[in-house]
Amino acid sequence: MAVYTHLGAEDLADLIAHYDVGNLVSAKGIAEGVSNSNWLIETDRARYILTMYERRIELDDLPFFLGLLDHLSAAGCPVPRTIHDREGRAWRILDGKAIALIEFLPGVSVDRPTPGQAYAVGAALAELHRASADYPGSRANDLRPRDWQSLLDRCGGDLGSIDPHLPALTARHMPDLLEQWPNDLPETVIHADLFPDNVLMLGDRVGGLIDFYFACRDFAAYDVAVTHAAWSFDKAGSRYREDVGSALMAGYERARPLSSAERAALPLLARGAAMRFVATRAFDWLDTPEDALVTRKDPMDFARRLEFYAEAGDAPFAPKA
Amino acid sequence: MAVYTHLGAEDLADLIAHYDVGNLVSAKGIAEGVSNSNWLIETDRARYILTMYERRIELDDLPFFLGLLDHLSAAGCPVPRTIHDREGRAWRILDGKAIALIEFLPGVSVDRPTPGQAYAVGAALAELHRASADYPGSRANDLRPRDWQSLLDRCGGDLGSIDPHLPALTARHMPDLLEQWPNDLPETVIHADLFPDNVLMLGDRVGGLIDFYFACRDFAAYDVAVTHAAWSFDKAGSRYREDVGSALMAGYERARPLSSAERAALPLLARGAAMRFVATRAFDWLDTPEDALVTRKDPMDFARRLEFYAEAGDAPFAPKA
Prior knowledge:
Two copies of one chain form a homodimer.
Chain A: H1 9-16, E1 24-30, E2 36-43, E3 47-53, H2 62-74, E4 82-83, E5 92-94, E6 97-103, H3 115-132, H4 145-155, H5 159-162, H6 166-180, E7 187-190, E8 199-202, E9 205-209, E10 216-219, H7 220-231, H8 242-255, H9 260-287, H10 300-312
């Protein structure tokens, strides 16, 4: 959550001149993105987000991510368009780093979603899944069950230093996830990380879905499970908010009803969604110095969600009477 | 340069409701300020900067800083107004920390000022000095020559670890600065830190002067010296940009001609201005871990300026024929 690169007025004005967006009026480095630097740019015409890809992201994936924004936006999803430069390019290289200019969308991320907001987010996710189905780009999910196992293996004996219950918890669930993970559910391009941080709300309305840098082709129902896990609990994952979880599912099914196979898979997918964040957070936890300015996210917030899903079975996903 | 505190939509909306500024539409944490967290807030009426004072600043000084913004803004200076809450308060307390809402001003900070920009900044500084003369608030400068000496003393033997020339340089100049520092030049409220970072430019026009958290009562001519040192060199301080330095002085003197005593003092004040940043940067350099995300500022950038001023004498400040 920082701006890693300094860009002064002259650099920014030179850059903006490559786009048909008017003249630079204001630019503020914004504290969003873990591996990117971002600026909120204002010209005499409109506002934009300028992203500089600092690391981690593969340049090879940029056409997939930026093209997806255009595809979804053209289909009416509340997703920022990519602004193409005067030569039609979706990104440019500046000082050896890729940069892209995207539309600015209004809205604010909520901490404690209401059922009305969760309903709207469920519906927006379903519409995203419908609209992305015919997106021609392809990118495999590199965070599937065997990848979680491999991250956990790399944590090794240190896993218990995060929390003494963590090794047993992962050992109890990983075999099911590896063996029972479905292979025949409907696929589409999924967001895969639709936390409240990545949704800009205007009251009960979704103003924008952002940060598609985990987007990939995978089961639509897995994305439902990720979103359910991300929205329907207090932050620590100690309390399931049934009204929020139900509203999210109802909103989703209004726009894209689940098949019986998808519904049947959801309890396992939800355990998997929770495990995915346990695994990446545990790995990052051990990989990040305690005094780093980057806030470490507690893997136990998702260990508690995993335990909830394991006990709750299909109750959170059963259709309401 | 980070946002140290998380504020979600609900916190922000609750906060904004205490002000008569409309409804929250967007909020982005911005990467400005070393010891504050800042958000660019948009409502359905206008934009604002929300500042949360995280540390270092004394709550006792807030009325001075925030009142100064109002005083200067009322006098026509391009300074953001403080937005007062519905009860008339210039700041509020949130989670034990002071917060203030100030006007958003457009403009972008330049890296390589042109003479035209330097002229405009000189004139804006002079107008600030005129306008602040009758500001009733008082705050002493806590970074005067004896304070630089005390910071350098605290660096002790480690000073040479930054650069082997640094101990001799400070030993050569500090006695003059301590003994010859003037005591009878015209005083006003000065900005004391008017680097290009703290000026929002719209082309050749000054759109905003910001970040008054070093403002204090001191010699107007010392502020001229600080601003001259901050604007008239390349970043490393290796090259004096005579055209920029002259334009800055000309812009200043158009709006507030210097007295002969002020002009005579400027060579010493400029050495002092450079030493002030050598001292604080050296102290911060030794105090900041090498791998911290905060960028350490190199004290040698100002050691080179100090050497320039010591050699140049009154040439940079002599009136043009």
